Amino acid sequence: MILSVLFFLQACATVPVTGRKQLDLVPDSELLTMSYSEYSTVMKKSKLSTDQEKVDMVRRVGKRIAAAAEDFLVKEGLGSEVKNYKWEFNLIQDDKTVNAWCMPGGKVAVYTGLLPITRDETGLAVVVGHEVAHAIAKHGGERMSQGLLAQLGGVGLAVALSTQPAAAQNIFMQAYGVGTQVGVLLPYSRLHESEADHIGLILMAKAGYDPRAAVPLWQRMSQQGGARPPELLSTHPAPESRIRDIQALIPDAMRYYKPR
């Protein structure tokens, strides 16, 4: 029992802003290696958008959010983690998929089906900021640690990849909400959502985007529900209570906002 307690104490990380302790069974080096490999695979299988105006917008928003994220990490005392981010932002041509995600190391994909809902650059910054916030808060790594513990008995990622590669890959893809690659998406917990909302608003504000745009964006996203809600809502539910929570977080985010 004592050894188990010591193990879980050592296998903990701390979430920026909230200070919450989280389960962290997978070393960053292993997650990064898998992330680069899986991202490359997804990009090769996907059709990338050739609409240069939209591609440029995604990369412009991404560059500004990435710079804000690195500054955020430095000011949170996590500057040593900046080197782990090799930012890449791609727009996947798929008008039926309303989704975006960020893998470890800053590997980001946005689907064209999301753009009619985000409408403009600021709306897109809400979503990209939110997804990058999940990444720097290491929510995907936490969910993967939980998946390895629940589904594979807590074995390390390296062992899982060598003994049960398909299961390990599935856990990874589910953990990061790569919706078109797996049959079942794992919803982020309300706690993860609250943390990503808070950090994401700060990131977009630091990047020069008005965080008040988050409220109408998530309202529009909620209105896209129905029999088959958008993929983004499968992993990022947006009930009215959550929108109220976001409204309560906006005054704090506005402290970082300087229009460009």
Using brief descriptors, characterize the structure shown.
single chain, 260 residues, 3-stranded mixed β-sheet, globular, disordered N terminus
Quick structural summary:
The chain has 260 residues and is mainly alpha-helical. It has helices spanning 2-10, 28-45, 52-75, 115-118, 121-136, 139-152, 157-163, 165-175, 190-206, 214-222, 231-235, 240-254; strands at 12-14, 21-23, 88-92, 100-103, 107-111.
Task: Draw up the topology in text.
Elements: H1 2-10, E1 12-14, E2 21-23, H2 28-45, H3 52-75, E3 88-92, E4 100-103, E5 107-111, H4 115-118, H5 121-136, H6 139-152, H7 157-163, H8 165-175, H9 190-206, H10 214-222, H11 231-235, H12 240-254
Parallel strand pairs: 3-5
Antiparallel strand pairs: 1-2, 4-5
Helix pairs in contact: 3-5, 5-9, 6-8, 7-8, 9-12, 10-12
